[in-house]
Each structure stands twice: as C-alpha cells, then as structure tokens.
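Case 317 in the screening queue. Each case pairs one protein sequence with one candidate compound; here the compound is adenosine-5'-triphosphate. For every case the pipeline is the same: read the inputs, emit a complex structure as tokens, and attach any notable structural observations.

Predict complex for case 317.
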Amino acid sequence: MGAAREPQANRRASITDDAGRRARVRTQFGVSTYEEVRPLASTASRRPQEQVVRGGSETPLLSVQGLSKDFGGLRAVNACSFSVSAGSITGLIGPNGAGKSTLFGLVSGFLVPDEGRVFLDGDDITALPPHQVFGRGLCRTFQIPREHGSLTVLENLMLVPPNQLGERFWNPVLRPGAVRRQEREIRAKAMDVLEFLTLDHLRDEYAGTLSGGQKKLLELARTLMADPRIVLLDEPAAGVNPSLMARIRENIVQLNRERGITFLLIEHDIPLVMGLCDPVIVMNQGTKLAEGPPASVRSDPRVLEAYLGGQHGVAER
Ligand SMILES: Nc1ncnc2c1ncn2[C@@H]1O[C@H](COP(=O)(O)OP(=O)(O)OP(=O)(O)O)[C@@H](O)[C@H]1O
Ligand SMILES: [Mg+2]
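Case 317 output:
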C-alpha cells in the first residue's frame, strides 16, 4: 500500500520572487494561484531585493572608499567614503559646488578618480568605463538631462539596451526574424516603462520638445530600461513643477518598494530629501560632513553651518 496522498486543496505557502516581492501561493487541486503581498511601507521592508552576504557580513550594495578628484588646482572631491545599503533611498545633499555631481561621475565611470576605490556588491568597479558600470546595474541620471532631442521619447528608450542585433549591419539581412523579434521586445519594454511613468502619451514627441520636468522623467525612464539595481539621481526635482515633482517622488517610492531598486539621490529640495531619504549624507567642500537619519542630520550644527555659511537654510528650504 502506498502512503496516503496529501490532500492538495487549500495548501498555502509563501514564496519570494526575484524582485523580493512576497506572494502567497494557494494550491487547489494542482492549480496554483498567486496573490501578491505588497511589502509594507516601513524602512525595514524597503530592503526587498538585495541582502548580499559575503564572508558572513552584509556587504553594502555600493561602497565608496577614500575617493578624491582634482580639477587642476581644485580638489572637487576629497577622501570621501560612505556606503549605500541595498534597498535604501539614500540622500546626498550639500551646498552648491560641494562635489556631489563629481562624486556621481566618479562612481558611474564617467570620471576617473585620482585616489580611492568604488565597490558595487563587493566588486571593485573603480574606473570601469561607464557602459560596463551601467551593465552591472548601476545607472545614473544627469543634472542637466541628456536626451536625444531629435529622436522621439520612445526612440530614446529603445536606444538604451546595448548590443542590439540590428546594430550589426549583416544581421538585418542574415537574421531579419531575430532582429525584428528583439526590436519588438525592446519596444514592448519601452512602452511598459513609459506607461509606468505615465509618459506613454508622449511616446511620439521629439524629446527636445519636452518640458524640463518631463525630461527629468525621461532620464529616469532611460535608467529603467537597464533593469537597474541602483539608480543615482542628480537633482530629479530641480526646475520641476510641484505636480510633476509629486509624481517623480511617487515613482521613486514605488520603484523602491515594489521593484527593490536602491536609490542614491542628490537634491537641493530639503523637505523632499528629508521626507524621502534615510539615511542622508551631507557633503561640503568635497568631503563628507555628516551622515545619518534625516532628523539627526537636520539638527547637526556642522550641517547648519555649512548651509548658513553659503546663505542657505537647511531647515527652511
Ligand atoms: N569638469 C570640471 N572641470 C573643472 N572644475 C569642475 C568640473 N566639474 C566640477 N568642477 C568644480 O568642482 C566643484 C564641485 O562641483 P560639482 O558639480 O561636483 O558640485 P555639486 O555639489 O554637484 O554642485 P551643485 O549643487 O551646484 O550641482 C565645483 O567647484 C565645480 O566648479
Ligand atoms: Mg551638481
């Protein structure tokens, strides 16, 4: 006699998918149904995608160690060290000229550091060329958007995936089916991204005709085409009207919570940073001045001094 069969009806289990989303699985007579369980909004549950453990300790997703960069006689970044935990929305603030954008350039491979190292997921990526850093899932946006103005919004996104079959001149002749199939897939992905960011109505507009805020969203859209693990946003809210800004904020939160994307965010809009980011890192004159939860950074006398010295009020802005 064989063992009694386990009744299949109403068996329940919990699974976690690649994006870290939990789902309840209910198996009923051999048919599985999936009910997504959205992670809660707490900081702890904002760490769905990556908890990298190497050598027994948690490795930060991004680690910057002793980075320096000189432009002629000017030290724009000076022995700067910090790390970004997987699943966080980390803020990077500081007065004008503090070295924030230069730091993004160093981390993303657009600039070569004079000193220091950058690690992604424990791997040394210092001075890798930008396309290789991008290929590893670290994507950045630019303070001044770099859209292709004479291409449509959709075309701007479809350009992003590297090594497309159609780029090799013989493939459209020798492998037309494969080229068309890949193009269809990339187009579908681009449309998904545009719908997610509610930019789909602009798909056929020339990118050069978009408003400043829409161009900022397009920058974010371009990073999403790469299935990023971490996105570095350089002033996503600068020059953006309040309603579009609320949308950008909402998109960041949603991408973080639902897709587990980690963010490092430069912003001068202090209320936005303090409401969205934890921790917050403060730079001044190329160095890291302070780091911690928004409340402690906001009341740090060194931070107040740095902003007030530059005639900015960190509390009021
Ligand atoms: N390519 C460059 N050549 C020379 N100097 C540069 C270059 N890029 C930046 N700098 C200088 O390095 C310093 C840091 O500039 P950076 O753009 O990183 O500051 P930031 O913190 O991003 O400022 P902001 O908030 O105004 O964008 C500034 O003094 C700037 O003038
Ligand atoms: Mg800048």
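Case 317 observations:
- The mean pLDDT is 80.
- The chain has two domains: 13-22+35-147+211-317, 148-209.
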